[in-house]
Amino acid sequence: xxxxxxxxxxxxxxxxxxxxxxxxxxxxxxxxxxxxxxxxxxxxxxxxxxxxxxxxxxxxxxxxxxxxxxxxxxxxxxxxxxxxxxxxxxxxxxxxxxxxxxxxxxxxxxxxxxxxxxxxxxxxxxxxxxxxxxxxxxxxxxxxxxxxxxxxxxxxxxxxxxxxxxxxxxxxxxxxxxxxxxxxxxxxxxxxxxxxxxxxxxxxxxxxxxxxxxxxxxxxxxxxxxxxxxxxxxxxxxxxxxxxxxxxxxxxxxxxxxxxxxxxxxxxxxxxxxxxxxxxxxxxxxxxxxxxxxxxxxxxxxxxxxxxxxxxxxxxxxxxxxxxxxxxxxxxxxxxxxxxxxxxxxxxxxxxxxxxxxxxxxxxxxxxxxxxxxxxxxxxxxxxxxxxxxxxxxxxxxxxxxxxxxxxxxxxxxxxxxxxxxxxxxxxxxxxxxxxxxxxxxxxxxxxxxxxxxxxxxxxxxxxxxxxxxxxxxxxxxxx
Length: 480
Fold this sequence. Notes:
single chain; alpha/beta; six-stranded antiparallel β-sheet; 21 strands; globular
């Protein structure tokens, strides 16, 4: 073998290994099932998810009953029984179109911790719960289960939760292995929380991967404007605040025995917002009077989806800054302040994950990426994650013609700039149709104690139907 041939062979071999490593990286996509109720262009259907951008798709959430059974949170949205929307079935089918694994998560912030502490702390109930999980996965054809208990030994939990959590994961893994199911966890990332909740090396032993929730480092619970998910600490930060970033969290988990190849780095597709106490004082750390104004889609003070942020930035008036040490952007307009991630910061975080040999990246959550491409490319944040982690930009598979479960398409209303709350049409929160034009309706949102109306309009030929809180064919809408 000549020297030149050996060199060429070595280059090709290394390139092949690198490509295989990228191909094995995980891109975990969480989907908030309640977002099918969002208005206008914020509403997402399961068919809008691009499964080729995900290696694992996780449907959220189911809950826990105190007898160890699984609680269906929204039977009409999740199941097909009684004419429901069959969210479970559609989600599993959509994932298979792109070769992604379909998983379901239990828990979340709203579930709290007390029930989990009670069930998991009782060996008999815990064993029953494990059997119920296996039966659930078999019934609905999911490929795996994500445990999002927020958080052991916190929020109504107790110290013994830490060991009982490990026992739960061990028993789940033993039951899963014979069926080929995947087991993952979503965990609090920062040391202050993680040190209270987890025996990290034992948690890592039993799961296939760990979704590290490296976001919500700062938010409206603070009285000052802070970044949602900074990559690194800034020199101005001291003490615990200097640990509230991606880098410190990852290194804490590594130091406690979590293998790098099981850590999936969490990346948010949303920002945390603040209303500044003084618009002229708008740097990081500026005093805040409270959460920022709610967005038209997410409709929650203190948070904006990336799809809402990018539209706002295009409309103008915002000053965008990129924190040079913490490597993420923030934007200011008047007294409104938002810290978020964009394509550039997501690219850097994914390169960071690669540099440490992490298992990949996770997005919370796909429906607040710009999934419609309103600001340009569809799913810009998920796309850059795939380019960096997997070395590809997958296409979006189209569903076969016979997979439609309805005889008519579900139209999506288009949004217009919010109207000033001057007409008095909003008397309570929710949707209301314009009395003079069936195609026009309003989303009435409580913002800082005042009802603000957002004017929306259905596409041509459609009318707003109060019975479904969405646009429908005009001949199907009473009174139109």
